[in-house]
Amino acid sequence: MSHLRFLLATMKPLGIQFLIKQDVARKVFLQSQRCVSSGSTEPFLSGSNSNYVEEMYYTWLENPKSVHKSWDLFFRNANAGAPPGQAYQTPLPDLSKSRALLFQSHGLAKTPGQAEKLLEDHLAVQSLIRAYQIRGHHVAQLDPLGILDADLDSFVPSDLITTIDKLGFYGLHESDLDKVFRLPTTTFIGGDETALSLREIIKRLENTYCQHIGLEFMFINDVEQCQWIRHQFETPGVMKFTNEEKRTLLARLVRSMRFEDFLARKWSSEKRFGLEGCEVMIPALKTIIDKSSEMGVEYVIMGMPHRGRLNVLANVIRKELEQIFCQFDPKLEAADEGSGDVKYHLGMYHERINRATNKNITLSLVANPSHLEAVDPVVQGKTKAEQFYRGDTAGKKVMSVLLHGDAAFAGQGVVYETFHLSDLPSYTTNGTIHVVVNNQIGFTTDPRMARSSPYPTDVARVVNAPIFHVNADDPEAVMHVCNVAAEWRNTFNKDVVVDLVCYRRRGHNEMDEPMFTQPLMYKQIHKQVPVLKKYADKLIADGTVTLQEFEEEIAKYDKICEEAYTRSKDKKILHIKHWLDSPWPGFFNLDGEPKSMTCPPTGIPEDMLNHIGKGASSVPLEGFKIHGGLSRILKSRLEMTKNRVVDWALGEYMAFGSLLKEGIHVRLSGQDVERGTFSHRHHVLHDQEVDKRTCVPMNHLWEQQAPYTVCNSSLSEYGVLGFELGFAMASPNALVCWEAQFGDFHNTAQCIIDQFISSGQAKWVRHNGIVLLLPHGMEGMGPEHSSARPERFLQMSNDDSDAYPEFSAADFEVSQLYECNWIVVNCSTPANYFHVLRRQILLPFRKPLIIFTPKSLLRHPEAKSSFDEMVSGTSFRRVIAEDGAAAKTPNEVKRVIFCTGKVYYDLIKERKSQDLEKQVAITRLEQISPFPFDLVKEELEKYPGAELVWCQEEHKNIGYYDYVKPRFRTIVNHTRPIWYVGREPAAAPATGNKNAHLVSLRRFLDTAFNLDAFEGKKF
Ligand SMILES: Cc1ncc(C[n+]2csc(CCOP(=O)(O)OP(=O)(O)O)c2C)c(N)n1
Ligand SMILES: [Mg+2]
């Protein structure tokens, strides 16, 4: 103890903050714990109490008034260096009413011994209160079936078990139950009262923490937020609902339940992933929406899995029922292009009046693939974009709601990646409400086999999101939790989780037999009275509704369903475009078609190039000191501008800067994109003398311009690419680019690429113009960092290898682009990169654009473009044909080498060194897919007698060869071979040995210019 006091005594107020930061205070108490066990001079500091002392001490450090006066005195005295045994003094009695009661019930604490007991008992009660707040959820009755433990653990904390046990644990006795205790400021169970009997304290705590709501929030590192939650749940009478509210809740449950019943009656053998067992989810969502609308939210964007999706469409979004029912008709023909999707994946967008608030509300449910949780970051990106375009920086008008299944929420890593975006300035949506349909099963797998964490929701703890578990068979408890969740989001703009602990009345889908695998659980489920009946019985019993009213409500909704069913029979055609989650008003014509089938030239006036070049070379802020190395880079940009040339970075600058002037928002996101992985971009300047002072010159280019967002992302591909895809969904008038650090890392976002980017339009008739920048190239850097896996993107391209497209020459390019699922390019010049970025916006429709971007070419002296290639009238060149000596005398050409990307520079160097410029033509494919059949054909016809070669630096089974080969053959009608030159097939995309890399390069360059290499070979 003397050690503690010594250290306490030395903690002068000014040093305390420092000590807290250094965690010295904690160590002090750890030491004090050791000291007190060997005979304490402060008698109340027994070993078991020292934790409380520590707790008190921290609380006192934060705010001396927040602890009991006795503690305040003690710590003050200790701090002032009071000798052993004298730091504690009995506080002067408070004469308030409750205090008087308190002393009455304990007997007047006149002597130090009595005072000490009083203090100890208070400490015990305070700890007890805190125990409920921290661990009460372990005791709460969360499982409606009453057979499972929502936290996967049947163990009940010993300090919260029976009254006797817990009293003993805290050194209290039954005789203390009627004693009155002053309540600490960290509880609201007293309401207006500041002291309560221990019996009442326990009763109220059990009511709050151990009934049908289990609260997890005490891990939050913010006292104000903890206090807020305690206030919302502990305040006596806080869960009272008016009769009107109860009737609305019942009516919503009727709709939810009867909708499922109706589907089950009409289509008993169809999969629909019904909500039975969690019908309360519908009123829960409606409550969240009502409350949020009341607080000013105008647009709610939702993402959800299969379970209950049709019900959400019908009863939350309010899609016309006949539109839903007609989807069950297998004979219905789709009117739209594309392959469409099953009914429980489609999205929806609906503007309507919110009946509870009489305000306008827009609801959007984002279409999603089967891949559980993949839609999470997409929803967040779309939400961010909608907030951004409305200037809703605090998320007061637009919000997202994400629904999850228990197994998926715990199992899918993208959930974690999405949570980690939640507080990043360029990615936050200012709080998401997560609702988990925790039916305590994932397909056939028990929770104990599906996760290692106690709850499926534990992932949310990483961002300090409060988690409200609630028994889904108690609709009022669910509504209270949802109201609080909506208010939480509105108050703190942070994520929150509502965990609806429920069950699944049927199998995974309606065709599955759950008794195969969960026999006991399902025996119980078969006995389980549906929540609607339970709640209706309750309301009828307490007179809130009559049986007749209840039955009328049911009959009314059944009639609505029947009538819609009849109408649905008349529907002969299905329009997927009626299920769009993100309409783009005005972008297409009224039939949803592009307004034209042309693309204007993408070049810009020379003075604009000059202006942007100067902007890219200067620092627009006064007194802003940049790094010397950067000054040199900016100077070289100015030089280039004067010389009318651009390198890669400047070409990109020209594209972005010009689009901004045209009112197009540009957003570039990815790991380290601000500087650029290869230190070439430098879009954010950092003051070398003022910490965190930054400047984005791109935002100072024009007086009137769209904003430019460039943001370093978290180290996630799946989450961030999904997010940017969602951002790009919101508006066609934005260039949204995601850059991978190296192209190969895109495969950790493969699900977004396969499920959304490549196939999104075919499934959901939804356009998306996202741009993927994937650094790619064999540079001897090893198997990683080399290949962006072009073969995979090409393999997923939908243009037919065996059919020459039947478009007219004039609109070949645009028509082909319109038909394709995405565009894959590998530009060899900065000018072409500039054009392809601009074409992305100038096209009358949107397609995803995949660009394999260079690494060494960024600084290659020859990879520069003249302004002449970028000025008005110029355009993106899908093919850059040979225009040197070979092109002048095509009949003398022996070989035409087709290639793409960086290898072109190796090839021309080699050709020059071998003096073969007349014999060998080299033509670049800049757009690989859709394959530029028309332009390649022109080239082939130009050199009728030449041998055709495809040359790539990638291994044969990697890269482009498998894609281009059949297309070349189609053009020549299989009359001429297209020989392969490149690296041998390999399992790894590149060697890790620099020398081996150079040897293989040498080898294939030799073959490329060995004009006898293919003599006598068959094709
Ligand atoms: C990424 C992914 N992996 C696997 C599946 C196959 N699958 C479909 S539903 C399901 C179980 C989902 O359980 P849960 O998240 O608890 O939702 P519930 O069906 O219980 O509502 C699985 C594994 C999938 N759809 N997505
Ligand atoms: Mg489940």
From TrEMBL:
It is found in: Mitochondrion matrix. One of its GO terms (molecular function) is oxoglutarate dehydrogenase (succinyl-transferring) activity. Pfam families: 2-oxogl_dehyd_N, E1_dh, OxoGdeHyase_C, Transket_pyr. Its EC number is 1.2.4.2. The keyword Translocase does not apply. It catalyses: N(6)-[(R)-lipoyl]-L-lysyl-[protein] + 2-oxoglutarate + H(+) = N(6)-[(R)-S(8)-succinyldihydrolipoyl]-L-lysyl-[protein] + CO2. Its main location: mitochondrion. It comes from the Eukaryota. Its cofactor is thiamine diphosphate; Mg(2+). InterPro entries: 2-oxogl_dehyd_N, 2oxoglutarate_DH_E1, DH_E1, KGD_C_sf, ODO-1/KGD_C, THDP-binding, Transketolase-like_Pyr-bd. SMART domains: Transket_pyr. GO terms for biological process: glycolytic process; tricarboxylic acid cycle. Keywords: Calcium, Glycolysis, Magnesium, Metal-binding, Mitochondrion, Oxidoreductase, Thiamine pyrophosphate, Transit peptide. It is an enzyme of class 1 (oxidoreductase). Residues 646-860 form the Transketolase-like pyrimidine-binding domain. One of its GO terms (cellular component) is mitochondrial matrix. SUPFAM superfamilies: Thiamin diphosphate-binding fold (THDP-binding). Belongs to the alpha-ketoglutarate dehydrogenase family. NCBIfam families: 2oxo_dh_E1, PRK09404.1, PRK12270.1. 2-oxoglutarate dehydrogenase (E1-like) component of the 2-oxoglutarate dehydrogenase multienzyme complex (OGDHC) which mediates the decarboxylation of alpha-ketoglutarate in the tricarboxylic acid cycle. The OGDHC complex catalyzes the overall conversion of 2-oxoglutarate to succinyl-CoA and CO(2) while reducing NAD(+) to NADH. The OGDHC complex is mainly active in the mitochondrion. Involved in the inhibition of cell proliferation and in apoptosis. This is 2-oxoglutarate dehydrogenase-like, mitochondrial.
